[in-house]
Structures are given as structure tokens and as C-alpha cells.
Design goal:
11 helices; Arc Repressor Mutant, subunit A; single chain; Tetracycline Repressor, domain 2; mainly alpha; 2 domains
């Protein structure tokens, strides 16, 4: 692995474990047993590292792997895959979601990239919901689409921050993310058709079991 890639991966690990605000470029260099000068050869500052991390997150791990409804995948499974992908990314880059407003405020370039990506994600979620409606999985009025997309993305983006403000012990583990998936299933249930409801309830029970299993391993 190239030094630049090592710096990015080490930064993700340290930011997640210690919090981005508590980690400096010197900490990252020491963690990798390289000189600060070597780090600065690849990145100008910590904000530059964070920007590169976000580019990896948005470009390689989220937009390119966003699921689409197809004849090979059950329609309801598609939204399950979507939730899995989003929450897995949230787990890997949880430092970003824990401190999102501050990070965006500090870096106009990061904010610009973030907003652009979010617009693309909103469009893909819209298409996903429309595809599910076409397959008679969910029902909603056209004027409800924008609000449904906003609610789903709101949970995906800020569930982690909400959880951390509601608990004395706010350690992040798999159980937290399964809770997030369960919240989305609750939102979708009133829109689910009678024909698709058994599959949605099956998915709910599966994630409920994963949640319980994760609690037992903590």
C-alpha cells in the first residue's frame, strides 16, 4: 500500500477511535511511524486528509455501489441493500457523521463536494422509491416523494448523531446501526402494500434479531 493510502486509512481509524477533533497530523504520523514532513509531502493539512477521505467515501463506496431495482433482485431486497450500504458506510466513516456540521463549516471545498453528492443521492433514492411503487411494493402520492426522500436521508445522515446525544454511554457498535435500519423500516411500513407487507415484516424480524445478537456481543 502506498504511503498516501496508508495515511488515509490510518486517519480513518484514528478519527473513528478518538474523534477527529482529538487527532492531529502529528498523531497520524506517529501512528504510522513516519515523519510529519513525510505526511505533509502527501497532504497539506488535516482538512486535506478529510477531503480525500470524503472523496473515497462518496466516489468509490457509495455512489458506485448504490443498488438499483432489477429483475435479478426482489424489489424490497433492493431497499434493504440500500440501507445496508448506507449504514455500512456510516460505520466505516462514523467520525464524519458525528461531526458533520463542523467539518463542513471548516472546509468550503468539502461542503461544495458534499452538497453535490447529496443531490445525486437524493435523485437515486427518488428513483428507487418510484421503482418500488411501480412494482407495487409501496404506495405514495407524487407530492409525497420529496418528503419521503428527505426523511429517509435524514435518518441515514443524522441517526448516529442523534443516538450519541441520547445516551450516557454513546459507544458506537453494530447494534446502533441495526437500530437505524429498524427506524427506516418503521417509516416505510405505512406505505407498504398488503402484498409486500409479509416481506417487510420478515426483513424487520431479521434486523431485530441482528440487533439482539449485536447487543449480546458488546
Amino acid at each position: 500500500m502506498k504511503t498516501r493510502d496508508k495515511i488515509i486509512q490510518a486517519s480513518i481509524t484514528l478519527f473513528n477511535e478518538q474523534g477527529e477533533r482529538n487527532v492531529t497530523t502529528n498523531h497520524i504520523a506517529a501512528h504510522l511511524s513516519i515523519s510529519p514532513g513525510n505526511l505533509y509531502y502527501h497532504f497539506r493539512n488535516k482538512e486535506d486528509i478529510i477531503l480525500s477521505i470524503y472523496e473515497e467515501y462518496a466516489g468509490n463506496l457509495l455512489l458506485e455501489t448504490f443498488p438499483k431495482v432489477s429483475s435479478k433482485i426482489k424489489p424490497l431486497d433492493t431497499i434493504i441493500l440500500y440501507m445496508d450500504a448506507v449504514f455500512q458506510m456510516t460505520m466505516k466513516f462514523r467520525f464524519f457523521y458525528s461531526n458533520l456540521p463542523v467539518l463542513l463549516e471548516k472546509s468550503p471545498i468539502l461542503r461544495e463536494k458534499y452538497v453535490k453528492v447529496q443531490h445525486a443521492i437524493a435523485e437515486r433514492v427518488s428513483q428507487l422509491l418510484l421503482s418500488l411503487r411501480a412494482e407495487n411494493i409501496i404506495k405514495f402520492e407524487d407530492e409525497e416523494l420529496v418528503e419521503m426522500v428527505s426523511i429517509l436521508r435524514l435518518i441515514n445522515t443524522f441517526w448516529l448523531s442523534f443516538y450519541q446525544t441520547q445516551n450516557i454511554v454513546n459507544e458506537i457498535n453494530d447494534s446502533v446501526f441495526y437500530q437505524g435500519v429498524l427506524k427506516i423500516l418503521v417509516i416505510l411500513r405505512p406505505y407498504t402494500t398488503d402484498a409486500a407487507l409479509p416481506e417487510l415484516l420478515k426483513a424487520r424480524d431479521m434486523y431485530q434479531q441482528r440487533y439482539q445478537d449485536a447487543l449480546e456481543t458488546v
